[in-house]
Amino acid sequence: MRTSLHGSNCGDSCCLRVENLSVQIGNDVILKDASLHVHCGEMVALIGPNGAGKSTFLKAVLGQQEHGGIIVFSAPGQRGKKPKIGYVPQSPQFDPGDPVTVADLFVCCMSKRPAFLGASKAMKQKILECLDRVHGVDLIDKRVGALSGGELQRVLLALALEPIPNILILDEPLSGVDVEGMSTLMDMLDEIRNTYDLSILMTTHDFSMLEKYADQVALINRGITALGTPEQVLSSPAFEQAFSRKGGAL
User: Fold this and answer.
1) Beta strands 28-39 and 15-25: pairing type?
2) How far is 233 from 217, CA to CA, in rounded Å?
3) Structure pTM?
């Protein structure tokens, strides 16, 4: 676990502040009075049973979900400006037989140039620079549908880091990644937040990585029922209740 370069008293100058976040869809209360403060440079993990509201929390932060409460992001030099947010969605599916390459995907996402024309020389150099951030230069010509789970996460992460965001949001980045790949991916995320001093907010069902990498863990179960260090949350009564046979399941 890394100590934030800014300490824990960044005030409103460099953080994501969520206060009393509530989401109701029809008569179903998805989240109620959830509050969380993510300091600049921190890695914060959201955990909880299936259907507990983790992805809804992320969608609210991303502006994709109507909600009550307050969500404020501020960073040095960003006053009055929208924050730069990088987002990696949960387990997108690609046809294994699709001929689209990683380079084609970048062209589609970063340029108005039709992908079938291929990447220009300048665009190819830009793609290589993006992939180099995630140690994935060798993936540029691979078909997207043929990537392993870990390789696909690298590619999606490289896209989310262009331009370098203030906060990086990942929905279940370890899903579909083998055990060795999980460790590699988490090491990479740790390297990225150290290199670019950005915040990371992620959901996960894998608790084995929390103590080593997470600064804070928030247990979500229709609200934030436990918040603190990995050790504090994983040993809390709220965690035991959420993941007991009656309380919930992974």
Assistant:
1) antiparallel
2) 7
3) 0.89
65 within 8 A of 56, measured Cβ to Cβ: yes
3-state secondary structure at position 86: strand
* pLDDT tens figures, 203-238: 999 999 999 999 999 999 999 999 999 999 999 999
Question: Are 47 and 242 spatial neighbours (Cβ–Cβ below 8 Å)?
Answer: no
Domain ranges (residues) in the chain = 15-91+149-154+163-242, 95-146
CA pair distance 60, 169, nearest whole angstrom: 12
The CATH code that applies to domain 15-91+149-154+163-242 is: 3.40.50.300
Q: Alpha-carbon distance 181 to 195, whole Å?
A: 21
Nearest CA to 75 among 198, 214, 200? 198
| 48-104 per-position pLDDT tens digit | 999 999 999 999 999 999 999 999 987 666 665 678 899 999 878 888 888 999 999
Q: Which residues contact 86 (CB under 8 A, 6 or more apart)?
A: 160, 161, 164, 165, 167, 168, 169, 198
Fill in the DSSP letter of residue 76. T
Tokens 């969605």 -> residue:
89
Distance separating alpha carbons of residues 48 and 54, to the nearest angstrom = 7
| Two structure tokens written together for 181 | 């790949």
Contact at 8 Å (CB) between 237 and 250? no
Q: SS3 helix, strand, coil % of the chain, rounded to 5?
A: 35, 25, 40
Single-letter code of the amino acid located at 30: I
